[in-house]
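Field reference: sequence -> structure
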Amino acid sequence: MNVPRILVVEDESDIRRFLRLALERKGMAVFEADDAQRARIEAATRQPELIVLDLGLPDDDGKAVIRDVRGWSSCPIIVLSACDSEAEKVAALEAGADDYLAKPFGVPELVARVRAQLRRASLAGDKGTASARVSFGDVEVNLATHEVSRAGGAVHITPIEFRLLASLVRGQGRVLTHKQLLLDVWGPGYATRPHYVRVYMANLRQKLEREPARPRHLVTELQVGYRLAGLA
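Structure field:
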């Protein structure tokens, strides 16, 4: 049985112990670092399958650690932050983080986020079984033919709506910022127009969610961006 290797980077010993115990109870092997320098060493030597990283480290900015790790590794990185700043969250995601958790948080949410990122990484690494067909809830998307169906019936979506949906699918559950989506779907000239994403996301929810006002799959990450939940 493969035991996931998790690196926890957190300078507060009580929180680090809490994280370690929570993840070890779920069958994961946990390694620790209490500052940025140690985090870089542990990441290089332990080769973790996922990193849980506090941004507020005593010797360096956590975003610098993310950028360094991204220079040689694509392992998922979940950021922990006590800061409610939208700019800080966006900066961490654009530096290469895959997800973030605002402090305080509960064990169930932590474990769910970790497992979701491990699944995404496993699927991304399993190139031999890659498929053009993906699904979430009762929606099926064919990335090759640009066909979308819901509960077995064809759904008409516009080319831009499809590009937005495909971008979220490729994200495999990651939080994608407004800027990332704008660049991917519309191009560099639209990087400062987040209302484009909101309008087209609302259209997609009307067509693909059972309850558009309470979406289960096309999920908003407040002030940051969007994620696609429940991808199979």
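Note: The mean pLDDT is 89.
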